[in-house]
Amino acid sequence: xxxxxxxxxxxxxxxxxxxxxxxxxxxxxxxxxxxxxxxxxxxxxxxxxxxxxxxxxxxxxxxxxxxxxxxxxxxxxxxxxxxxxxxxxxxxxxxxxxxxxxxxxxxxxxxxxxxxxxxxxxxxxxxxxxxxxxxxxxxxxxxxxxxxxxxxxxxxxxxxxx
Amino acid sequence: xxxxxxxxxxxxxxxxxxxxxxxxxxxxxxxxxxxxxxxxxxxxxxxxxxxxxxxxxxxxxxxxxxxxxxxxxxxxxxxxxxxxxxxxxxxxxxxxxxxxxxxxxxxxxxxxxxxxxxxxxxxxxxxxxxxxxxxxxxxxxxxxxxxxxxxxxxxxxxxxxxxxxx
Lengths: 162, 166
Hints:
The complex is a heterodimer of chains A (162) and B (166).
Chain A: H1 2-18, E1 23-34, E2 38-41, H2 52-57, E3 59-72, E4 77-83, E5 91-96, E6 109-110, E7 125-127, E8 130-141, E9 156-161
Antiparallel strand pairs in A: 2-3, 3-8, 4-7, 4-9, 5-6, 5-8
Chain B: H1 8-18, H2 20-32, E1 42-45, E2 50-53, H3 56-61, E3 63-75, E4 79-85, E5 89-92, E6 99-101, E7 105-109, E8 116-117, E9 123-128, E10 133-144, E11 153-165
Antiparallel strand pairs in B: 1-3, 3-10, 4-9, 4-11, 5-6, 7-8, 7-10
């Protein structure tokens, strides 16, 4: 009986050892490459229409007239604006009132004429990474009753630089 | 002196009794010889590395997904496959300002719908209880992306898939 028991123990031991918790492994690298990315949209065209009061005040102003969107995964970007030509009847200004990034604060800034040697780094905005929206006020100054009627159209070029 | 002939079965029993340890040792030795048919054998293959490139559209979506990455397995016993990250994070941005968290890498069975963040602990991916066989299942990976956080760089980790008997 004892010998039979030993045999059974042996067989049981064999069975237990025969199916051990073996393991196999394999590895895989999972990688994402992120380049410098950005998108920028300057928004819709803006029209300023002068009224009698505006001619008296010598300026015309419109608030939140355009929205710019900027997405950038780098920091240190700059956003600048330039006019395509100089006009004698008025000067164009811009104000970033709802600033993301690191706008230099509320206040109208004159849009320089291209080509310019003026440092524009902080003209509109500059800043850090993010998904940003800028609300812009526009101002045209230099109007007077001597200003001729009619439409005068400028093109403003916004440049986003990373 | 009387010569008593022992029965043959008694001689065998004595031999067995004397050498029982030897017998057990032999049984053990046979059991651990590689290739022994009685030993549980398993293999697993995660195939090639996964390499993705983020775009602006991916940032707007907040994610970049790699779908249907096959994991092949063979086993002659009930099995379980686990996955773990061998790295505690996904690495730094090129400018070394930002460290991407490992939890920004999620995974799920392609046939499933629930994403789980990758961790440095073994997590069960799939199990099989049909005994021996071979097969394959697919896994999806997802990197979370943020305009505000994810600066340019190469973010990566090594995942280890392990198959064991249940």
